[in-house]
Amino acid sequence: MAVEVYLVFNGNCREAVSFYEKVFNTDKAEIMTFGDSPQNPNYQLPEVAKDLVMHTRLSILGSNVMFSDTFPGSPFTVGNNVTLAIVLDDEAQLRSAYEGLKEGGKVNMELQETFWSKCYGSLTDKFGIEWQLSYEERN
């Protein structure tokens, strides 16, 4: 397993992904939009968010690089739009890393089941580094 880079954009993620596909001659990315995700009946997804990129990834020179747009209304600062993603197939190791990283930090999303992972959480560590941790079964 490796630590992967997650780049966040302010509405221009598709353009960036297309650019990197050409520059690095990669396969075309499969893009999931916020509108593609299961909708919460108690929360109306804003129309402006429906076509924004929720998640995609490219293999660039042998490394996975993940991309998304920030959700409308969420803070966005150019230069601080990079997070580190840990994708593990060992849930105990993932939980241990999460607990260690949150010490002195700020939890953005507690570890929980989502529609894409049975165990996902995000936090900012005490040094200001943003982390996403996700369980993914490997074949």
TrEMBL record:
Coiled coil: none
InterPro entries to which the protein is assigned, alphabetical: Glyas_Bleomycin-R_OHBP_Dase, PhnB-like
Highest taxon, organism lineage: Bacteria
Segments forming domain PhnB-like: 5-133
CDD domains per UniProt: PhnB_like
Protein name: PhnB protein
